[in-house]
Every structure is written in C-alpha cells, then in structure tokens.
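pasting input
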Amino acid sequence: MPKSTATSTTFATSKLDRPTDHAWDAIVIGGGHNGLTNAAYLAKAGLRTLVLERRHLVGGAAITEELRPGYWFTTFSYALSLLRPDIIHELELTKHGFMPILMPTTFCPMENGDYLLLGQDHGENHREIARHSKHDADAYDAFNHDVLKVCQAIKPLLDAAPPDIFSDDPEELVALAMLGQRFRRLDKKVLHDAVRLLTGSAADFLDDYFESDILKGYLASSSIIGTKVGPYSQGSGLVLLYHLMGEHDGEFGAWAFHKRGNGGFTQLLARAAESFGVEIRLESPVETVITAGGRATGVALDDGRELHAPIVVSALDPRRTFLELVDPRQLPADLVEAITRFRFQGTSAKVNFALDGYPRYPALGDRTDQYRGFTNIGPSMEYLERAFDEAKYGAFSQRPYLDCAVQSAVDPDMAPPGKAVMSCFVQYAPYHLRASDWDTQRQPLGDTVQATLESFFPGFSDLVIQREVQTPLDIERTVGLSEGNIFAGEFLAPQMYFFRPAPGWSQYRTPIEGYYQCGSGTHPGGCVMGAPGKLAALRILKDRDRARAGTGARV
Amino acid sequence: MIRTTPFHERTAALNETGIWEHWSNHLVATRYQMSEKFEYFAIRNTAGLFDTSPLYKYRVHGPDADRFLAGVLARDIRTCPTGRAQYTVWCDDRGFVVEDGVVLHVAPEEYLLTAAEPNLAWFLALVDGLEVAVDDVSGDWGVLAVQGPKSRELLASLAPDVGRLAYFDVISTTIGGLAVHVSRTGYTGDLGFEIWSHAADAVAVWDAVWGISRGRGVIPFGMTALYMARIEAGLLLLDVDFHSSRFAWTDADRSTPIELGLGWMFRDLATDDRAFIGHEAVRREIAAKSSRWRLSGLILDWQDYDRIFDAAGLIPPKDHTPIQDEYYIYDDELNQLGYATSQLYSPILQRHIALARVPIHLTAPGSRVKLELGVSHRYEYFDAHVARLPLFNPARRTA
C-alpha cells in the first residue's frame, strides 16, 4: 500500500485560492504514449504541464533500445495501426519526423512447409489464397467488405468518450441518445455483424466465411493478441475487431512500422509535446498523489519531493491509478471493488533477436521480401487454441503463437547492413504460472520460442547473435503495467466502453476532483492509439472551462 | 520501336510487376514492386535508385559556352562555376517558360544540360555566330539517380569525394574504375545524387552501386514513386504543372518563371546586366507586378475531407497515387480562382496536398480556397489552405 496522503504538506499547499502559487497547471504521471499525448494537448491549450516519467526514457511500453551496438530492439510494443489520425494532425507530428513506413507483406508459414504470403496486389493475393482454397479467395473479398463496414460504423466510438449511462446530466443523456440513433441508422447486417464481433468468437465469425486453415489461422491470430482468450472463446471477436479497425493512411487493418520502431514514435511524440511547452522529467517516480479536501493538489515523488498542480493525471493503469497512487479509502467502495476485480492477467511475452542474417524459409529459397511485414506463426485456429489450452492451466504454450517482425527489412537502420533484428510477440505466457515462476521460466520460454522458430526456419538458431526475453513479469517490472497486461487491462466486454475501467468512471475523471486518468486502462483501451490521452485531455479542459464559467476561478 | 535505357539489363531483371511505361521513346518501370509506396519510403528513409536516362541531354561546349548560356538561360550561368550545377529555365522573348532543366558545369567551357523534351533546334537557332557547339548527347549517357537519406554514405563508400559534395555541386570522379560525373541533384526533394556514366559503362556502374547497397534496404523505384516525391518537394513536371511556351496555343497555357514560383532565380536581377532571352519581360513583370497567378502548395483540411466522405457514406480515401491533372479551385461563393495541377495523399505529411495555380492575392500562406473533387459521382468542395512550397523540405536535402 502506498503512503497515505501526506497531510502536513497537503495543508501547506492547499491554498487553492492562490493558484498562482502553483508552478504547474497540470502534472501527468507516466511518460508513455498516452501520458505524452495527454500532456501535449493540455500544453497546447495553454496549461503549464509537467510529465513525470519513472524511467530514464519516455515511451512506456513503446520504446526502442539499442541493446547491442547497431541493433535496435522494439523491446515491447512493435508496430503502429490504431494511432488516431486526428492526433497526428493536431499535435503536428509530421513536423517532428513522424514516419509510418508501410509494411507491404504478411507472411504465414505453415507446419507442412507451405505458406500464405499476402502483399499489395489484389490479384496476386487472390491467386495466393486460391492455392489454399479457391472458395476462400473470393470469400476474402466479402469478408473484407463486411468487416470494413463494421469498422466504419464502430470507428467513431474510438474517437469520443463513452456517454455516462449512469448520469442524469442532460448532456450525457443527449450523447446516449445520439449513440442509440447512430446504431439505429445502421444497416441490419452491419449492426448484426458488429454485435457478432463484439460479443462472439473469432472462430464462429471466420468459419462463416472460410474453409482454409491457414487463412483462418492468420486472421484469427488478431483475435487473441494481448488477451487471455483463444480463437474459439467468446470475446475473441472483439479483439479481432480492434485489430481490424487499425487505420493507416486511410486503410483499415493496415499496419505500419514507425521509423526506429515505436520508440522512434514516442521520441518524436515527446518532441512534439515539448514544442507545445511540456516539460518532461525523467527518473522521477511518483509515489503518491497528494490530495486535500477531496481534491488533488500535486504529487509526491519517491525521494520525498513534492510538486504541486491543481490537475494531476495518471497515465498508469487502473490498478495503479486507483489503488496505489491514492489511498483507496478515499474512493467509493464500489469503484475500489470494480478495480480490484478488473482483469489484467497479462498473457503475452516478447522475445527479440539480433540475427546474423535473414531467416531462410525453405519453400521460398533465398527470398527475403516476405519479411517486409509481419510473419505470423499461427497456421490454424486449432494451433492457436492448443497454444491457449496450456495457458488456461497456468503454463506457457509449448508451441506458442508468434507474431514476428524482421524490422530491419522495413527500416534498415534497425540493424547493421546484412544483419537483422526480429521482434517476436509471444502468446500464451500467462502472468500467473501455476507450477513455477517467471524468473525461473524466462529462458525456457526463450528456448521454446526459438525452437518453434527453428521448426519453421531450419537453421534459425545458427543466426541468433543475441536474444532478449521479456516475460509478463518483466513487462510489469520494467514498464509498470500490472501483471504485464499490454493493454493496461484485458480487452473483455465487461471492461470496455461504458465500463472501462469501471462503471461510472469511463470519462477519465476520478472521484477525487482534479485527479484524472488517461492510460490505456480507459476508453478506448490499449494499442498505440493515443485516444485515451487525447480524450482525457479534452475532458480535463472541458471541466476546467466549466469550473471557470461557474465560479470565475481559475482551476 | 521502343528503346531501352543503358541500365535496362539490370532494371528489367528487377521489375517484378512487368509494368513499364514510355518516356521519350524509352521503356521505364512504372514500379518495380507491387507497392510503389514501399519504393517511396526507400526514398524517404534509406535510398532508392532511379533510372533517369531518358532525359534529353545536351553538351554545350566551346570558348563562348558561358556567353551562350548566359544569354539563353534565365538564371545567370556566370554564377555557376566549374564544379557547380544549376536548376534553370529558358524563356521566350515574352518571358514565358520554354522549359526547365539542370545544367552541370563539368569543365571549363563545357556544360551538360538536361531537358524533358527535345530542345536542340531551339538552342541551335540561338547560337548566332558564337563559338559554341550544342550537341545532343542524349543517348551517350546513362544517368542513375541515387536518392534518399543514405545516398551520400552509400556513394561516398564508392567515391569518397562524393561525400564532400554540397547541394548542386558536381564532380568528375570514378565509380568502379569508370569515369563518371556525379552531381548532388535530383527530383525527389531529398538528399540525393545523380551519376552520369557513359552508356557503355552504365551496367558496370549500376552493379557497383547495387553491390554496395545490398543489405541496406536500397531498392529501385519507378515513375509513380518519383512523382509522389516530386509533388511533395514542389518540383515541376512539364505538361502537368506547366507547358512549353513553344507549343502552347494560347497564353492561358503559358507560364512565366515568376508565376511558377521561380522568382528566386531573379533575386540579383538588379545587378544582372545580361540580355538573356525574356529579360525585359521578366523585369516588366516584376516592376508591374503583373503575374497572373503563382504556383503554390495546397493542403486540404483533413477534417473537412473526412466529413465530406463520411457524409457520403464512404471511407475517406487516402490514396498516395499522384493525380497529375487539372482540378479547379474556388472561393466560398464557388467562383473559380485557379486550378490544381498535381495532387496526392502524402504519406510523409499525412495530408492531401496539391500544387495549384493560385491568384496572387491568395498566395499568402494560410489563405483559404476550396478544391473541387468528385465524391460519389458529384462534385464536392473541400476546404484547403495555401502553403509555401516545397511542402516537404528536409534539412538533409541541402545540408
């Protein structure tokens, strides 16, 4: 339990009638991409804003590190898709070097040595799918069209705060009515498809279109990322939809590799934030949020120093925001209960490799162009589900799902000429191991991943120069994400939209006045999307304007 | 019969699409890979190779070469010593642009000049007793453009003196033991170089560059990626952004350098005593402020763009494919103001951008206009604002 509210300093600084005493208008805790986005919007609106980052670099889980001279690893998060285009424009990210490089291929090796290799040409993709199923080659167009329609319908929900269904505020009721109207206007099929995806399993949805295991395996892989579900689980449809809704240059479902990885992205985001006046302090871990009279007044750092501001924003996950940064006794019991129940259960790991060259896939000979996008080791829904089976019982998958990216093939600056770096997202690796612990199982997990890759790419191990394994425990320890959940809380329907992170608290406020939340544990959730950071900033600014209008006081 | 360039043996082997187009009677790749956008990112992130051999090339040499070019070219060639290059235009007597090109001062009394279309007769008619020869050497050279942030480091490893070239410098050096001219020029708006090799040596020069490029993400790029880059860089394309005055039917199809945004070429006009062709008209245009319009950048309002497509029930398209055709611009009352000549969705700017002819009173950056585009089979009018060219201008381009 963190220190309880420091009463003596609280009183010393609770001169809210003298706001000019505050050096800062807002303090943002956590320099991940949402913290930085939030701070940038606040600063752009004129608030003197400070970001406090615990580590020696900003970015949270979106960092790139040179772990070996010339080899850059996207330690955790590794590609962009859901980043909101409005944020790119409003924060003028292109001025600071925003460069989302197209990933033109998707490579899906199969256990029998064959593969599915999709690229940028519709006709070629048709022919490639037809090698596996002529039916599916046509069905793929229908699937994409149907899913695009759902994405088009759902997308606006990502770009606005959910209405508060528990509020009597007329503004909220209007927002709710508009939301209802929006859905009533939808075509019946689109609405039904949306509900099927939002509530059902990816397998049920995909089985309606396809017969080919490799195509279904590839598509279903997006339904499990970061979430403790298998493709046959209800709820995997929602995860699938999120990954299909990614939008890059107007193309839904497209992914991009940011120059120098997601760390390259967060570095420029920090530059953009600073250009609006944000100050970023590194190695400044916050111990607690200081409150007085039910409102936030600042933060105490773990070295005892205090910094004051009438607005404090937590970019950390809901557990840390509500149960660690503040004394839960200050909060309503139902909120504390909801957050205590909130599922994290991280289930993903990363294994990153420095390689002496490009892996060889026998069926493609010496080709390497297949590595210009994701390499998806998830050749069938059954493969994925069997990988999930072990996780259900507290073990990591012996034949894991891997989402690999040989990033040096897209951005040659990631590795020396002729060499490669390969990022492998691994699932399933449950945070809670039943029979062991992650400090013991770290390298065995790395060995399992490497052996899996070796089975698809004979000779892979001979290429390995260096291997980095990041278990869910490491993610928690390094990034601070509870239980290593990459989305700062599971993407499960009871934890989404109106209910993210808790019923009644989906609008970025907290019960403590002046204390806000802006992390991926809030709507619309994880992925390098930036929407929580932005939407929280809009909420903060609106509250500030209202308070000014109501009281004439500067908040 | 269509001809191939000196690099064709190599480019043909790399063109995975089988898509070629004709450029000055030569086959050139539209794109080498299924994704021209991936090729484009090579230009912006690593380096790309482009076969620019089909350009018309003229060798201007002799004791009066300087004098000749000083009178023919609008930009003062006397400020371009040996070892330097210039982007320039040549005009007619009325001050309208005939064409543009790059002139390389490769040796004393010797220049190489590029042009998009044939200009030999035009130049020869102007020799007028001077001791100068103008030879069409178009087929004698293979020209390989190496464009992108890594281009300098790549070429410097083949020819160290290339590493020292300043923007628009040119040197004679060797690559793979073969004599070449290398200029720090290009048509992408990025750091880049162009290598002139004798046609017979072209494949060997390609091989040397290709060899050093392996494992570095360097790929060849085709016409589409080139056009993407050039629009972002605000570089003009003949018969798209302007037309040769020689072949225009009316003045509506003619442009002055100042109208094309090249007024900077005449910064020193007050002290420039040359009687170059069109000088009086240029002086008059400057004095009378009689330019009819100015080629300017347009940036579409992204919210308005999305709103209009959303309202039509469509997903707002963000297509990087260059549109090199006329689209009209209007004021709020839908009076036509001018027209856009080139546009695309720019991946590096994440915006729809255009090059457009804008009336002088609206050339201040931020001026608002509307661009007419078809949406769902009817015209819609998209908010846009005027911006200074080039819209993309990385420091490395000239650093």
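fyi Chain B touches chain A at residues 33-35, 37-38, 41, 44-46, 150, 214-217, 302-303, 315-320, 345, 347-351 (CB under 8 Å).
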